[in-house]
Specification:
Layout (H helix, E strand, L loop, with lengths): L7 H6 L15 H12 L14 H4 L2 H7 L2 H13 L2 H21 L5 H20 L7 H19 L4 H10 L9 H30 L3 H10 L2 H34 L3
Helix pairs in contact: 5-6, 5-11, 6-7, 8-10, 10-11, 10-12
Amino acid sequence: MTSSGPTPAEQSTTEPPDLPDLVDLDLTPEDVAAAVQAEQAEPVDEEAEEQKPTLLEQMGGVSGLVYSSVPVLLFVAVYLPSHSLATAIWSSVGSAVAILIWRIIRKEPVQPAISGLFGVAIAAFIAYRTGSARGYFLFGIWSSLAYGGAFLVSIVVRWPLAGVVWSTLNGTGTGWRVDRIGRRYYDVATVAWVLVFGLRFVVQNWLYTTNQVGWLAFARIAQGWPLTIVGALITVWAVRKADLRQKALAEPVEEEAAEPA
């Protein structure tokens, strides 16, 4: 009776399947199995995967930082020499609309421009209703107070907003609240935003009370993106520290679960 299977000689000469080049690599059996599965899987178009935008890109890039200052500067530049509130309002709103159209034409991200137009429209409406140029800055002043108060209350109730927002955006859950040290990192980030919004409110509200329109515009710009970037950098530092803390706490649990009973 003849054997239907290959002979030992044939087995020795049979070419192995086409696998990734694993020679001279310090790989575990799990790594090899993963490599085989990756070879057998359908190729993935890496170029189709969108890269996550950086912090600066989310802010509209360098051009976005510049464009955000144009409506405020134009409002003050038109109002101070002419004292025509209507002309200053329409100049500010018109510049915000022009910036949005310009970004659409250049196929740049429009979200920062849309948000900017919305803020300028509210500021212009308040200035029109109050009949005062300083009213243009009132929405930003009270928004700073509201945001600062919300961040401060979140610390008191032990739900720091920096951690809540971050975990919500990334879907990581609220397990970080269990660890006191990890929560303190988010407390630090939240305190940074309390200081950012608090400083904006104190300075700009004083300038508003003393009716210093020119200095209000200066403070609006100087305390805008610069302070936002500082707050964002502190938040990034705190998030990384908290994530490292969570990973360090999770490692012993995973090792205990892997041990045989």
